[in-house]
Amino acid sequence: MDIGLNEHHQKNVVNYLRFARFNRSQRLRGIEGAFEDLKDSRLVEDTYTLDEITEMLTGLCAVVKGEVESELINTAHTNVLLLRQVFSQAEKWHLKLQADISELENRELIEEIAKFEEREFSPAAQTSQTKMSKLSQASKLEPLNEGGAVPLLQMEINRLNDDNTKLRNRIKDLETKATGVLGEQRKLKDNLEQTQAELKAKSNQNVASDLSDLEGKMAKVKMDLKKSKESESQIAASFDEEIANAKHEILRLQAELEDTQQELTKKFNETSQYKNMKQMLTTKNEQIKDLRSRLRKYEPET
């Protein structure tokens, strides 16, 4: 079943539902335990007075109320922690997320989530496929196509996104080259260690010619290693500078993208469709206020 998210995010939702189901079952066991304790400890006689029954029910109510209140508080706090993780990840990329609290009371969507949970955790969930949920079919505002500045702003947004992607690919290429330089350095270091080991073995045999040859090899390897380190330092400095410039460019493009999106929103608010819709809403609100005022005249006084 699809709830309008990609596969990765949908798996995270399933994991959270599994966590919530476990906590819910633990609280239900606590409530059942409270009833069992009452039956085992208090219900041992055949007859009870009204005061005794009232006392037992009052105590049981306090225990059940505490369990339910604890679960509601814990659920609210865990939801805040989940939102904190999402917002923290968004802030790292300079994003500003918004939450529509009114959607939390949408009974139709809540029923869809309940169906999703029931089907996801049913025995046949692994072998059956269900139709797309209403969540993924929710209507969305279509972009206006009036010509003029709005399409140009949209084109600019697309261009900035393309530039951002190119910069990220360039950073990946630079990181790949840096990894190759480090691999070459390790290879030269291994050759130096091997040459030193051969030199030590030959020195025990007192062979002057081999010793001289090995010393020459070692000097050559040291020289190559020195050159490699110098080249690596230059390349690393160049890579650092290019990466820093690329990151600054990404931040600039992101800021420019945000400004462009704000300008696009401003252009949208100035369109005739938006103004007409706003005027219609204002007229409807005035009519509702007038109807309520008339209705009060016919309501009986209390």
List keywords for this structure.
single chain; 302 residues; mainly alpha; 78% helix; 0% strand; flat; LZTFL1; coiled coil; Leucine zipper transcription factor-like protein 1; cytoplasm
Question: What can you tell me about this protein's structure?
Answer:
Regulates ciliary localization of the BBSome complex. Together with the BBSome complex, controls SMO ciliary trafficking and contributes to the sonic hedgehog (SHH) pathway regulation. May play a role in neurite outgrowth. May have tumor suppressor function. One of its GO terms (cellular component) is cytoplasm. The chain has 302 residues and is an all-alpha fold. Helix content is 78%, strand content 0%. It has six helices and no strands. Helix 1 (7-41) packs antiparallel against helix 2 (50-92) and helix 4 packs antiparallel against helix 5. The relative contact order is 0.06. The model is unreliable at 126-149 (pLDDT under 50).
Annotate the secondary structure layout:
Blueprint: H1 7-41, H2 50-92, H3 107-120, H4 149-203, H5 208-269, H6 272-298
Helix pairs in contact: 1-2, 4-5
Shape: flat
Low-pLDDT segments, ≥5 res: 126-149
Q: Which percent range fits the helix content?
A: over 70%
**How widely separated are the two ends?**
53 Å
Helical run tally = 6
Compressed to H and E, one letter per element, the order equals HHHHHH
Largest sheet: none
Number of strands: 0
> Please, what is the oligomeric state?
single chain
Structural class: mainly alpha
